[in-house]
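Q: Can I see a sequence and its folded structure?
A: Here is a first one.
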Amino acid sequence: MRQEEKEAIKRYALCAKGYHNWRTKKNPEGGFYNELLEMPSTFNLLGNIKDKKILDFGCGTGIYAKILTNKGAKVKGFDISKEMLDIAKIENPKTDLRLGSGYNIPFKEKFDIVLAPLVVHYLKDWKKMFAEVSRILNKGGYFIFSTGNPVAEAKKKINIENKKISILDNYFKEGKIYANWKDDKGKKIKMFAYHKTYETIIKTIINNNFEIVDYKDCFPIKKAKKLFPRDYAEYSKKPFFCVWKVRKK
């Protein structure tokens, strides 16, 4: 098992319950960054999924799996975190959800779509990841993944007239970056991700027998303006997440 996999397991063991409660109980209308920012763009690129065989790559606590199933898709999934997966199985008792990694997908069958919402940035080796996705994806099938926008990831906060603002900084320096999350008890923990430039992402896609079909910079939906006015004001002006739709040749 690779170092980033061990780190992801450790981090999500601390925050699985708190993460799920934040998205479903504390914010029943949806959290800003997921339901109101990332998910609308991802579902836009998914389109009609009725009767499609979909693999939920990094299914987390099963929020996406439940929605996909309700939309008529035939869903299976996996996650590297046992704690997250335990919640996902309670939320989706009839869905085949397994413990596994993006480097070792625990399925041999083929899928029409592989969906990876906000998970690929935890993996350092995208060549290995794309090889695994290709292995279980039908020819002509789609790999749809959302991740941090490379521009948003390369940011630095500075003070100007007692006001903190973000500026673009060190975009070309690829590697591990950290953000502050909270564990189940509300204590801050450092959550990691791997920053990659647009050039690296695009070349990785085309060099691994995939072609880019569509792309979206995530923009918050109107409901977010009332529920999260401060976040809406910021992220309706600059990108935070992006979604890629690529097809296996």
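Q: Show me another, different protein.
A: A second, unrelated one:
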Amino acid sequence: MKILVTGGAGFVGSHLCKKLLEQGNEVICLDNFFTGAKKNIEHLITDKNFKLVEHDVENFYDFAVDEIYNLACPAAPIWYQKDPVKTIRTNVLGAINCLELAKKLECRVLQASTSEIYGDPKVRPQTENYWGNVNPIGVRSCYDEGKRCAETLFFDYWREYGVNVKVARIFNTYGPKMATEDGRVVSNFIIQALCGENLTIYGDGSQTRSFCYVDDLVRGLIAMMESENFTGPVNLGNPGEFSMKELAEKVLKLIPQSRSKIIYKDLPADDPKQRKPDISLAKEKLGWDPKINLETGLVKTIDYFKTIIK
């Protein structure tokens, strides 16, 4: 198959490109490098089945492909809040452009949505039929509402034009190739511990997240794309739930040479208090569940950061 991955030079996108190539596919990686990095895919450049195209998904593109994975969007608050209008444009115009191409080609298209569409949830765990609790005018809204609008577009193109859409709601994902400067909690804690800096927890540390190792997520995305007669949305994440304090303590335990301590700062506006996916639907429809536990994944991620932090 010939497959297009928008945002293919990003953290998740680069892992997805690698896996698709390993499966014998031709892959076109589309990225404007706003948050993606060429170093993430430089090991793929020599593969004759890999093509890198520098392009912004806000502008229309046209490739003859069999499938489209739409991953293009900054996913860390520090980046999507840097230029919130661009974030919304990436979500909305990016969705329209990939859907228009899918309509033209009559091919499958998968939207990488997010657990952030649930906002600061009032139910636990979060199921796909929960509509969410999102502040539509807050500092995170450019991402949260942008992703919600993208989901709307996907289902409208499905209902109105019969486009073969797939929508996956991705929960917190971590692993090698995470950017050092994107402010995500796993990379933040690991970098701080390796550099001997204090681990910064925002709030009292009781807020929770569920962490999915990137290899598990990629396997879930591919299973979703290959599924028959199933549009989603479907939650893809690890249902293991950990508080920020528990995560910080685990990181320090796995880096025993670190002299770092845990410190606390004010919680940012609209920061969700809990995240825990219900993955019953993914198990039923995709036969998918995560295999890598948090400690195993953290060891792999720590080993990666050790190689890039001097």
